[in-house]
Amino acid sequence: IGGAADAIRMQKVVSFYEKLPRGKAPAPKASGPLSWYQNKYFGEKPSGMPIIHVIAAFMVLNYGQAYYYHLRHHKNNAH
């Protein structure tokens, strides 16, 4: 009585799932510098280098601030 409608609906579901790709998903491609960095350091083989990069960035920024607020006044003469 109502089996034909259910069979058609089920066939649509089956045909949808048959069209989906099988196997592992392809590796993500880097589309910009941030995604490249993420793929390199947080991808299949994660490493501790981002910690070193953050420390180096803080050191560079700290020196820049120290120069701007204090060391530039000593460029031509001492205290």
UniProtKB/TrEMBL annotation:
GO terms for molecular function: proton-transporting ATP synthase activity, rotational mechanism. InterPro entries: ATP_synth_F0_fsu_mt_fun. Pfam families: F1F0-ATPsyn_F. It comes from the Eukaryota. This is Mitochondrial F1F0 ATP synthase subunit F. Keywords: Membrane, Transmembrane, Transmembrane helix. The keyword Transmembrane applies. It comes from Aulographum hederae CBS 113979. The chain crosses the membrane at residues 51-69.
